[in-house]
Amino acid sequence: MQIGRVSMMVLLAALIAMPVAYAQLNALMEGAGLVMTAFGPGDFQTAALPH
């Protein structure tokens, strides 16, 4: 009986944690997209050595 209770608590914790983790990852990827949009690929080419 104790194992069933522990497994149900673990399952409930996972069901609560999954949407939170998804929202945090989504915000992180959205922030990375904003950074890439702000700087763009052209601004990073200024660090290249002259030919």
Offer a concise description of the structure.
The protein has 51 residues and is mainly alpha-helical. The chain has one helix spanning 2-43.
Write up this protein.
With 51 residues, the protein is mostly helical. The chain has one domain. Helices cover 82% and strands 0% of the residues. It has one helix and no strands. It has one helix spanning 2-43. It starts with a helix and ends in an 8-residue tail after the last helix. The mean pLDDT is 81.
Give me some keywords for this one.
51 residues; mainly alpha; 1 helix; 82% helix; rod-shaped
Helix fraction, binned, reads over 70%
Beta-strand content bin: under 5%
Structural class: mainly alpha
- The Rg value, from CA coordinates, equals 22 Å
How many strands, which pairing sense, and closed or not: the largest β-sheet? none
How many helices in DSSP terms?
1
Number of strand elements: 0
The sequence of SSEs as H and E is: H
Number of domains: 1
Q: Which residue ranges are poorly predicted, with pLDDT under 50 across at least 5 consecutive positions? A: none
Basic shape: rod-shaped
Note the topology.
Blueprint: H1 2-43
